[in-house]
Amino acid sequence: MKIGTDAVLLGAWSNADFYPDTILDIGAGTGVIALMLAQRFDAMTIDAVEMDENAYEQSVENFEESDWADRLYCYHSSFVDFAKEMIEEEEKYDLIVSNPPFYEEDYKTENSARNNARFTSSLSFKKLLEGVSSLLSVNGIFSVIIPYKEQERFVTLAVKNKLNLVRICLVKGTPTSETKRSLLEFSFQEKEIIKEELIIEVARHQYTQAYINLTKNFYLKM
């Protein structure tokens, strides 16, 4: 699987104002988000869960070859099954992140792995938020990146699971393009919502200073 801009944005943007002891990445893919969080935080437990076998194997390989192999672990499981097991073991996470599947049934391709990675049928927002609400610690943070058009529905579902929106960043590809992505941060605590905007490029491969500042620690050439 390729490393997408969404994953890089989420790994770089997720809350840096506290020091999580335990981190969970839901839908690890290549493992890039978990690796970015291992680079940023000293958390001793950084778990990831991935359902697709090929992606899981790639994630494990990337974890093992990284400088943080002793702190990273990937589970080969659906998130629903993983959540059930962790609930039984009374496990909680201080920071949970997810770049969830988001395309609807009508846009399915013939590639089943890509479908699982990108379509809501493999993990609905409802199931995602129910699991997160059960696994997040009392003062924990949940960060997610979703299509902007899904923002209102996602926030409504989050509130039903006692998760309050506390920070939002609207992402545009260029200054003149439509808002495509929403970076959202949730907490059980009610706080004043912090609102941000991020523009990625001013022209093709000409990145804005804001995007450079956010992601430069993770690119070899930026």
Compile the SSE list and pairings:
Layout: H1 5-13, E1 22-26, H2 32-40, E2 45-50, H3 53-64, E3 72-76, H4 79-88, E4 93-98, H5 112-118, H6 125-135, E5 136-147, H7 151-160, E6 164-172, E7 179-187, E8 194-199, E9 201-203, E10 206-207, H8 209-215
Parallel strand pairs: 1-2, 1-4, 2-3, 4-5, 6-8
Antiparallel strand pairs: 5-7, 6-7, 9-10
Helix pairs in contact: 1-2, 4-6
Write a brief caption for the model.
The protein has 222 residues and is an alpha/beta fold. 34% of the residues lie in helices and 28% in strands. Helix 4 packs parallel to helix 6.
Describe the structure.
With about 220 residues, the chain is of the alpha/beta class. It has a domain at about 5-155: Vaccinia Virus protein VP39 (Rossmann fold). It is about 35% helix and about 30% strand. The protein is built from eight helices and ten strands. It has helices spanning about 5-15, 30-40, 55-65, 80-90, 110-120, 125-135, 150-160, 210-215, and strands at about 20-25, 45-50, 70-75, 95-100, 135-145, 165-170, 180-185, 195-200, 200-205, 205. The strands form two sheets. An eight-stranded mixed sheet has the order 3-2-1-4-5-7-6-8. Strands 9-10 form a two-stranded antiparallel ribbon. A hairpin with a 6-residue loop joins strand 6 (about 165-170) and strand 7. Helix 1 (about 5-15) runs parallel beside helix 2 (about 30-40) and helix 4 (about 80-90) runs parallel beside helix 6 (about 125-135). The longest helix has 12 residues, at about 55-65. Mean pLDDT is about 90; it is low at about 105-110 and about 115-120.
